[in-house]
Amino acid sequence: MVVKARMIAPLKFKGVLRILHALVVFFAVAMPVADAKEILVPNYMDARERIPVPDLKAYGRIRFVTTVDFPPFSFLDQTGRIAGFHIDLARAICDELGVLPQCQIQGLPWAELEGALKTGQAEALISGLAITAESRASHRFTRPYLALPARFALRIDANPGGTGADALAARRVGVMDGTAHEAMLRDWFPDIKTVTFSRSEWMFDALRANKIDAVFGDGLQLSFWLSSKTAEACCRFFDGPYFSQAHLGEGLAIAVSPRNAPLAMAFDHALAALTRNGRFTELYLRWFPNGLY
Q1: 84 in a domain, yes or no?
Q2: pLDDT in tens, 172-211
Q3: Is 156 found in the same domain as 35?
Q4: How far apart are CA 96 and CA 279, in angstroms?
Q5: Residue 236, exposed/middle/buried by CB under 10 A (0-12, 13-18, 19+)?
């Protein structure tokens, strides 16, 4: 499988991405690993279902495109090579389908990904494209293979008086301003006192300093922060995970052009097989050793 990467200009939300990238580097070398038996691995496939494999002989090559600023899914490692969960997943899919030599993956700026599918420069997009009515009109999607949940986190020494989110009623909970997580917090937990922040580091500092009772946000970012040196082992997940298609979307899936619809079916077959044979679990635990759920 050929892996290519292009240098790109900074994209929107570059500050958040820089924080996430730093966390990924730390996570790769120093994050403590939870007991695998304690981690819930997502499974969106019916083990009894057998999805047929379409004939892929017409595909002399299968080119995946992704970004290089979406850690830990796809990013440039310390050697400048593209790496991440999506890279390993694409390889595993191609290997399962017996087409690994025909598969390539290239890093592009986010703004160019859909255009690459439309113009035939790529056959598959694996970079978290949102599944919406608009995107469904111009793409075919595999079944979701991973959803990113919302989670609460609070200090280890906190005693909210219960084990569920109801225990946080009337308490001050931090959330990033103007995000889907803010909307979800207000809609799902109206009895909580919402405190908004414009920068995640300010929110986390407020939690460590006991100025707020908890935080609510993306389970992925919270997982990295909780295990980082910055958190100083102060805090833990609380209740959840929480999923909401209305606020957070349907989850991550691979997108292809309508003309390549057979590829979506083939990828679904491979994803189901990887789930059954344990390879998806292996990849998940490799990149999310403390889990998201």
Answers
A1: yes
A2: 999 999 999 999 999 999 999 999 999 999 999 999 999 9
A3: no
A4: 10
A5: middle
Cα–Cα distance, 93 to 96 (Å, whole number): 5
| Secondary structure string (H, E, C) spanning 200-241 | HHHHHHHHHCCCCCEEEEEHHHHHHHHCCCCCCCCEEEEEEE
Are residues 129 and 255 located together in one domain of the fold?
A: yes
Alpha-carbon distance of 289 to 141, in angstroms, equals 27
pLDDT band at 152 (very low <50, low <70, confident <90, very high): very high
Q: At what angle do helices 219-226 and 200-208 cross, to 10 degrees?
A: 50
CB 26, CB 66: distance < 8 Å: no
User: Region 130-153: what's the mean pLDDT?
Assistant: 94
Q: Which domain range does residue 89 map to?
A: 2-146+250-287
- Sign of CA pseudo-dihedral 205, 209, 211, 213: positive
Residue 239, domain CATH: 3.40.190.10
Q: Do 258 and 114 contact (CB within 8 A), yes or no?
A: no
In a domain, 293, yes or no: no
pLDDT class of 24 with cuts at 50, 70, 90: very low
pTM of the model: 0.79
